[in-house]
Structures are given as C-alpha cells and as structure tokens.
Amino acid sequence: MKRGNILNLFFLVLGFIGIADTIIVRAFVQGMDLGVLLPSVIGVVFIILYLRPLWDKYYMKLNNVIKRIIYWGFLVFLTIFIIVEGCIILGGIYKPRPEKQPEYVVVLGAGVLENGMPTLSLAKRLDRCIDYAAEYPDTMIVVSGGQGKTEPMPEAEAMARYLVDRGVEPGRIILEDRATSTMENFKYTREIIGDVDEISFITNDFHVFRSGILAKRNGFKAYGYGTPTPGIVLVNSYLREFFALIKSLLLDY
C-alpha cells in the first residue's frame, strides 16, 4: 500500500474515532458542551482530509497568498495548541507545596447529576478532599459551585452532602453556592473568607494550571491538588481546557 493511501486511511480512522468519542461520552454525561463536541469536530476535519482528492483541485486554484495564510495559520495554531496543552499537562504534574498548610481548602465544582449525585470528575475531587481533610484536621473546607440549568441543586449543596455522608464534620464545611465558572469560584470564595493570603484548592489534574492562574488574579497564593480525570472524559477534558485557558487568559479579570 502506498504511503499516501496509508495516511488517508489513518485520517479516516481518526475521523471515526473522534465522532465515536462524542457519541460514547454523550451517553455518560449531561448535556452537550464543548468538551463533548470537540472530538467529533476534529473527527470531521480528519474525514475532510481523507476526502482531499474531491476538493484538492479547488484548493490548488486559490490565490497563493490565501494558501500561505491557510498554511501558516494552521502551523501557528498547532504550535500554540502544543505549547498550551504542555502547560496544562505539566501544571497538573508539577505543583508547589506550602511549608505550612493553609487554613482553607477550596473544592471546585464540576457538575451534579439529576439524582443529586456528583459527576465522576467531581466525585474524584471530593474523594481527594476527604483524604485531605483527614490529613489536615484543622483545615476548613469551602465547597464552591452554583446551580446549572440541568442540575437539581447547587453543586456546593451536593458536594457538602457527599462529604458529610462520608464522615466529614458539617462544621468544617463552608458553602459557596453562586459560582458558575472557575473565576467565580475564587471570586466568591474571596468574598466569604475575606482577607486570606494563602489557600489550597482541589480539582482534576487538567484543571490545576488554569485554576492557579485565576486564584492568583483573585489575590490568593494558591496550592493546587490535582486528582485523576475519569478515563471516559479524559481526552474531552484536555481538549476543552485548551479553549477554556485561552478564554480565561483573555477575559477573566
């Protein structure tokens, strides 16, 4: 088989994998957000590349300036994507630790199911919080998350219930039940706990890097504790986080 045919077949396989990923993940999560949709979008791009013989003759007729813009635009985007994803990945691996544990740890919300139970990603964060609470018994816990359109209650309420049901003392838990974004998680937490310099926060690995940036913008010196992202949404989460990080860098102030 010729090298070109092998590459085309590779594009076709990647295309169907991307579309299949969206279909499978959609069966396990609520709603159709950007993270769920992105693999299928990328899959469609690969299928378009597979069908290049059908449109290549039209592309070749384009003005050379336009073709250069498309070519270099793609290379610039790819370079930025690789750099940003590298920061996201490394941010979840290399995390500084405080000499003295902060007085507060903030658990960032990540969705509640229709039955009131946390999503897989949120459950991972809460389980990490339970271990953290046992290790540092004097630390206060802020559970942060408002109520989404498909959620039966604020995320903070569901998170508090989950922790209390698993042995965490209710008196240690502070509810922040307004936030609908990571920026608001820290903004509203700041309003509740006041003039505190240092905090810890718990989230999934893919989310640590951006959360640290937004915590700093809200005046915190923050130490992130990442927990593994469920495999079913691993690819989706890292793809979505690229766009979320770009948006946060530009707009979240």
Name of the top-level CATH class of the largest domain? Alpha Beta
> What is the arithmetic mean of pLDDT?
92
CATH topology type of the largest domain: Rossmann fold
- Biggest sheet: strand arrangement: 3-2-1-4-5
Unreliable runs: none
Give the proportion of residues in helices: 55-70%
How does the major sheet shape up?
5 strands, parallel
Q: In the CATH hierarchy, what is the superfamily of the largest domain?
A: HUPs
Number of helices: 9
Shape: elongated
Give the N-to-C terminal Cα separation. Answer: 54 Å
Protein described:
The protein contains nine helices and five strands; from the N terminus they run H-H-H-H-E-H-E-H-E-H-E-H-E-H. Helix 1 (about 5-25) packs antiparallel against helix 2, helix 2 (about 35-50) crosses helix 9 and helix 4 packs across helix 9 (about 235-250). It has two domains: about 5-90, no CATH class; about 105-250, Rossmann fold (3-Layer(aba) Sandwich). With about 250 residues, it is α/β, with parallel strands linked by helices. It is elongated and about 70 Å long. Strands 3-2-1-4-5 form a five-stranded parallel beta sheet. Helix 5 (about 120-135) links the parallel strand 1 (about 105-110) and strand 2. It has helices spanning about 5-25, 35-50, 50-60, 65-90, 120-135, 155-165, 180-195, 210-215, 235-250; strands at about 105-110, 140-145, 175, 200-205, 220-225. The mean pLDDT is about 90.
